[in-house]
Give the backbone structure.
Amino acid sequence: MTLDRSADIAAADVLAFEAPYRVRFDEAGPDGLARTSSILRYAQDVAWLHSTARGFDRDWYGQRALTWLVRSAELEILAPVPLGTTIVSRTAVIGQRRVWARRRGEFSLPDGTLAGWVHTDWVMIDGRGALTRIPEIFAEQFRIPESSGQISRVPLPPTPIAASRRGFAVRPHELDPMDHVNNAVYLDWLEEAVLRAAPEAGKVALGTIPRRYRLEYAAAADPAAALEDAAWPDGDAAWSYRLSGPGGADLFRARLELQGDLPPG
């Protein structure tokens, strides 16, 4: 299964689900555009709306002690989305394999322009937090094709000595209703780190169109733990980011990939 723009959703219109999202004041940044993390939040929300519409609401999962966790995502921003714009967020499950499934999301402007897309790899876990096989009813209800691919990974080299580093802890407002750091928060941390590492170059990088984010959620960030992150330029048109927990174990790895040359820091 490719990670490039494809006809995945077009070929399964009847199985897709969409919902409108107006970019609110608090979802936009100083540039008047939707934050990248806001786009990822729309993808998360529409996925749950889709699941609920198919009969799998939060009560259904709770009764069976099952839940989905995001393991990786690939997000590409293709057009700016101004404050007040209503975009259509569309989602479809495009592949499944034993314990994980892949969703594709697309975000369209009012004139139909594709503003971005995301592939998200989810794993299913049981009440003990262990991976468990996806119930067969999902494949039946969503008519999900069997995937021959693998969960996306973001391999990184060792963090350079010159990388910009920060120690911090999770703030209460960054936790979601599952008492987890929300997936989109990690993306905010990545962008904050890029701006911290190189304020001018980082600002240009985060405004570049198109730009692509590759995100791997290796382990959960415990709110009580001491965290450290690091960001560094990686080549002429990319940034790498690592979030570490106690003992230096990787919790989150990511890359921001740009078109064209990265301005000097």
Notes: Residues 43 and 217 are 16 Å apart (CA to CA). Strands lie at 17-22, 67-77, 86-97, 100-108, 114-125, 164-168, 211-217, 227-233, 238-244, 250-258.
